């Protein structure tokens, strides 16, 4: 089918682990990067440093604010993006993370929040962007006497540690390594969807049709002339960053329908199928609005 802060670097702690300080290359995750925000409440300003700790492998960040080493002890830590908590535990003697929370954001993306004084969520819990998950602390393995700070990491699942540690991106802007003072825009969700249909479907796909789903979203039909595949994705316009019922489907004439349906923060899909010289039926749902096409875009 065709056309179709403010603590100085000297206060950043040394964890005392025998790790290399070599910079890890960036990796490519299985899916688009989530729209990560700062792991602190809206409007707060924090100074991050990636170079003042001997434990750092590459793009980890230690965050502090305040005029003294313990000024931020007990400050709120929030989820950088919506997801599912896969670890909420004290790591004991295993490593230097102390109280650690790890969140799975889907698509092969994970965030880590370490040294917390307390954890507010349990493993298996679903969290929304900006939801409190813990408080800044100085927990570590026995014998590590560290100053309070948040150790933050972004990792992907497509390669082994430490090459899977990624540069942190907040509100669409890459953190200014090795150190930067940043104000949180983690203010209850994005006002516009940070993704595009082409980004979700992948390289080579172009939009050939679309249908509005009221004010809740738009469902798009794309085609890749290089491989003869169609792709359908439903992009949300409201409740961005909050998991709500969203659906995308694609049916090639003579074949079974392929559907992606679930509670998603930004989009449903991508749903792909080989459709060169075939008619397709496509559609989706966002909120209470549904679109179902006839068989079309044949040839």
TrEMBL record:
Native species: Microbispora hainanensis
PANTHER family named among the record's database cross-references: PEPTIDASE M23 DOMAIN PROTEIN, PEPTIDASE-RELATED
Span of domain M23ase beta-sheet core: 63-158
Keywords: Signal
Signal sequence interval, chain numbering: 1-26
Protein name: M23 family metallopeptidase
InterPro entries, A to Z: Cell_wall_metabolism_enzyme, Dup_hybrid_motif, M23ase_b-sheet_dom
Entry keyword Signal: yes
Pfam families in alphabetical order: Peptidase_M23
Keyword Signal: yes
Source organism, top-level taxon: Bacteria
GO molecular function, one term: metalloendopeptidase activity
């Amino acid at each position: 089918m065709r056309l179709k802060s403010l603590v100085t670097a000297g206060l950043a702690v040394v964890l005392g682990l025998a790790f290399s300080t070599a910079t890890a290359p960036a990796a490519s995750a299985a899916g688009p990067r989530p729209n990560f925000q700062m792991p602190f409440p809206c409007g707060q300003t924090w100074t991050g440093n990636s170079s003042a700790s001997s434990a750092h492998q590459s793009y980890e960040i230690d965050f502090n604010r305040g005029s003294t080493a313990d000024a931020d002890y007990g400050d709120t830590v929030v989820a950088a993006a919506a997801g599912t908590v896969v670890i909420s535990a004290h790591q004991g003697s295993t490593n230097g993370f102390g109280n650690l929370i790890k969140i799975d954001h889907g698509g092969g993306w994970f965030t880590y929040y370490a040294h917390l004084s307390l954890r507010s969520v349990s493993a298996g819990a679903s969290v929304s962007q900006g939801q409190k998950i813990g408080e800044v602390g100085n927990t570590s393995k026995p014998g590590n006497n560290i100053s309070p700070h948040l150790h933050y990491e972004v990792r992907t699942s497509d390669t082994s540690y430490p090459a899977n540690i990624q540069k942190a991106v907040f509100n669409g802007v890459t953190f200014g390594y090795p150190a930067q003072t940043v104000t949180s825009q983690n203010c209850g969700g994005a006002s516009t969807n940070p993704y595009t249909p082409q980004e979700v479907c992948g390289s080579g796909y172009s939009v050939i049709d679309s249908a509005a789903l009221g004010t809740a979203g738009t469902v798009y039909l794309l085609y890749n002339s290089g491989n003869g595949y169609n792709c359908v994705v439903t992009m949300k316009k409201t409740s961005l960053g909050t998991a709500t019922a969203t659906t995308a489907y694609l049916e090639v004439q003579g074949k079974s329908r392929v559907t992606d349906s679930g509670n998603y923060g930004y989009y449903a899909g991508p749903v792909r199928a080989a459709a060169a010289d075939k008619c397709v039926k496509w559609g989706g749902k966002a909120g209470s609005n549904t679109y179902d096409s006839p068989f079309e875009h044949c040839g």
